[in-house]
Amino acid sequence: DDCSENVGDKVAKWNDKSGNGNDLLTVSSTRRPRMIETDKLKTTKALHFAKNNYMVANEIDYCGDATLVMYYCQQSNAEGDTIFSSHAYEKNSVAEKSKIPFKITTDSNGMLSFDMQNIAEDGTQDGVFSKSLNITPSVDDYMALYITFEAKSNTVRVYVKPVNDHSAIEEPITEFTTNNKLYWSDVAYNLNYSISEIKGVIADYAESIIYKKALTINELNQVNEYLKLKYEYPVVKSLKLKNDISEIKYGESVTPEVIGIGNMMGSVSEYLLNNAVITSLNNNIVKVDNGVLTAVNYGTALIKITYAGADDLIISVRVPSLQMIESNIDTPVP
After folding, report:
1. Does residue 103 have a pLDDT over 70?
2. From CA 46, how far away is CA 301, in angstroms rounded?
3. Which of 23, 101, 324, 333 shows the greatest Cβ crowding within 10 Å of its Cβ?
4. Who's near 270: CB < 8 A, 6+ residues apart?
5. Is residue 19 within 8 Å of 29, Cβ to Cβ?
6. Contact, 49 vs 191, CB < 8 A?
């Protein structure tokens, strides 16, 4: 999915990039999510949903195999918080095409839960089917959530990959069978149809995909690789500098460009790190302010650069003791 709005704007439409026209919309101007900038992703934009924000694609009308993919960051986990909702489908002589909502919500323990109404043989609602997905989202961390639906057997399988987990998808975290078919209509994010319109989760959504098939493990891994490469930094193991700062003239300033080297989906990658921490071990020679080095005296300073998970990088910065400065006699000054 794609949005062209600027950071801070309220978003009325989340465009469907597949070309099928299944755009997500918010009609109410007071309940639209907001475009934000985030430093948690390589791609810096995401949609921020408050509890009363929602988006819905009500042109979808489909019953069959499907896969729901969400790459999002959950920031609340109150009981009943709704992340995604659509409808169940039961077709019999009494309840022809009755649409019963199913939802991905948060239960009383802060875990994700699958909830839907059961339909009795006479077509009436018969209690609620609820199944824990055995996933407790790490609040403020992104994750990739994959849920496959097999219509013939009513089987639901759930997979998850937390941020910076670049291992392959192998087995579902949970697998279960529902009593009703799953019907894709009025697909909604952050909107609870059956309890309250203001019961969404507080979350940032980066991307969502719905496939008209239950993806295989191999296909899930292809999608997982796409999402990880698009949104995540590698697991950084070591650091190096893109620019040479081994020598700085007295009074001058320089900004080091720090490169992180690590693994992403099994291959070695290099990324420019904007959030590496830079400190000076000799503040009387080189001072650091917001990542900018300034030579304040003559001599040699040691600079330490750190990044989570990587070995510290220690570099030596020399400030030469003789500098040519403008003077009446044009002579070197110590």
Report:
1. yes
2. 40
3. 101
4. 259, 260, 261
5. no
6. no
Place of tokens 């998808």: 169
Residue 229's H or E segment, with its range, is helix 217-231
Spatial neighbors of 289 by CB under 8 A, at least 6 apart, are: none
Q: What is the dihedral of CA 311, 231, 163, 108, to 10 degrees?
A: 150
Sign for the CA dihedral angle at 274, 280, 286, 287 comes to positive
Q: 197: how many CB neighbours lie within 10 A of its CB? A: 12
**Residue 39: predicted pLDDT:** 82
For 168, phi and psi rounded to 5 degrees? -75, 150
pTM here is 0.73
Give me the percent of the chain exceeding a pLDDT of 70. 84
- How many Cα atoms sit within 13 Å of 114 on the Cβ side? 26
* Residues written for the chain: 334
* Sequence-distant (≥ 6) Cβ neighbours of residue 113 within 8 angstroms: 104, 105, 106, 107, 130, 131, 132, 133
DSSP letters, 122-156, are TS-EEEEEEEE-S----TT-EEEEEEEEETTTTEE
How far is residue 108's CA from residue 323's CA, in Å, rounded to a whole number? 68
Q: What is the pLDDT of residues 214-233, one digit of tens each?
A: 999 999 999 998 998 888 87
Q: What pLDDT shows up at residue 2?
A: 57
